[in-house]
Structure prediction request, 338 residues.
Amino acid sequence: MKAAKDEDIVLTGDRPTGKLHLGHYIGSMQSRVRLQDEYAKCFYMIADVQALTDNANNPEKVHKNVVEVALDNLAVGLDPNKTTFFIQSQIPEIAELTIFFLNLVTLARLKRNPTVKNEMKQKGFGENVPAGFLAYPISQAADILFCNSNIIPVGEDQLPVIEQDNEIVAKFNATYGETFRKIKPILSTTPRLVGIDGNAKASKSLGNAILLDDSPEEVKRKVMMMYTDPNHVHASDPGKVKGNVVFTYLDTFDPDKAGVEKLKQQYKRGGLGDVEIKKRLITVLENLLLPIRTKRQALARNPEAIMEILREGTERTRKIAKETMARVRKAVKIDYFS
Ligand code: TRP
Prediction:
């Protein structure tokens, strides 16, 4: 059986566990906004079921953050007229598809997934990992495949999950006949942003990220705290640019590349203070964040309108889910009454 349509379909999603930050923006959100003008069919999923896999005892947190991540995405320019917004839990076909995919993956394979391993370590699960959490890459395959999507903009940390999802595609097709297409991850030019403390990854749980709706004072405070070069004590000292978070952020967010290059030379020679480069970064980030923050605040005044976008998009998406499940039931030979 062939996929219903061969045209490319974009899908991406966020777990509603907290407000999104610059790492999300540069790793994936910016590509989403670009791709919605390049592809006719785009989906944005709020992955509340996946969020519950490690927050089963905290449903309020997940519930509250559904609107927050929707606001973050709308504020950076994801447009509900171009991208269909939906909530994962409200598409029961995703859960149904997950059940069949679970049979195609071994426990050993799940335990080997580097993304899951890393997150398990971070959360201190050990052997007491919830089964749902260990299996989330399987339900993520269902997130992607239930609507035939094949183009997935993600951050670098998600690559092992997509790889595992492609194994599920291959196994399903080999077992039940050609049903799903191969999935293609799309990485941004900066697929991973370092934390303000120099940690490899900016993350809300590590408290080392600049949030998209941080106030100007908060942005300033965080930039002033940024890790630079500990041996660069006096402005006159020669300083290191490599591993210096301020320069990493300038490289990523400052549109004036030649200007940044000049500063780097000066910093390396000596004669340029940390406060000066931090001030420049504050201006650069404020130029990026001011319009996002302003739009977010305006949208946040009308939460009912946000819920309506999600409700309407979910309803449209559900229709596609039903069509896919009809094909899957036929392939798995459980279409008894049709
Ligand atoms: N796992 C993703 C993250 O933590 C969120 C996600 C869930 C997702 N389902 C998806 C991303 C499907 C892309 C496609 O960021």
Remarks:
- Residues 1-5 have pLDDT under 50 and may be disordered.
- The radius of gyration is 22 Å.
- The first strand starts at residue 10 and ends at 14.
